Amino acid sequence: MNLPITLYCHNSGAVVNSKEPRSHKRGKHIERKYHLIREIVQRMDVIVTKIASERNIADPFTKTLTAKVFEGHLESLGLRDMYIR
């Protein structure tokens, strides 16, 4: 049994571009080889899903967060016990 991989993305434009089979004016500069992503999504090997920043546990590595959100992500990553105030 091969289940599709779920790829969580917080960029709405990237999610739409991965699913949209037609070309967009702004995306026409993308090389042909990168259209492979759309083919993989259409084959249902990968499912690209929108995720809100509040639920994106990678956010502490990429942006500044409020203490409450940061601590919630630490817990999700299993790092809560390592965090010292």
Question: Which range does the strand content fall in?
Answer: 5-15%
Please tell me how large the radius of gyration is. 17 Å
Q: Report the mean per-residue pLDDT as an integer.
A: 78
Low-confidence stretches: none
Number of strands: 2
Question: Main sheet, how many strands, which sense, barrel?
Answer: 2 strands, parallel
Provide the structure class.
alpha+beta
Instruction: Note the gap between the termini.
Output: 46 Å
Number of helices: 3
Counting copies of identical and different chains, the oligomeric state is single chain
Main sheet strand line-up = 1-2
Number of domains: 2
Helix content estimate:
25-40%
Q: Which geometry do the CA atoms define? A: elongated
- N-to-C order of helices and strands: EHHEH
What's the layout of helices and strands?
Layout lengths: L4 E5 L2 H8 L16 H7 L3 E5 L16 H10 L9
Parallel strand pairs: 1-2
Structure commentary:
The model has no long low-confidence stretch (mean pLDDT 78). This protein folds into 2 domains: 1-51, no CATH class; 52-85, no CATH class. The chain is elongated. It contains 3 helices and 2 strands, in the order βααβα. The chain has helices at residues 12-19, 36-42, 67-76; strands at residues 5-9, 46-50. With 85 residues, the protein is of the alpha+beta class. This is Retrovirus-related pol polyprotein from transposon tnt 1-94.
Q: In short, what is this structure?
A:
The chain has 85 residues and is α+β, with helices and mostly antiparallel strands. Helix content is 29%, strand content 12%. The radius of gyration is 17 Å and the shape is elongated.
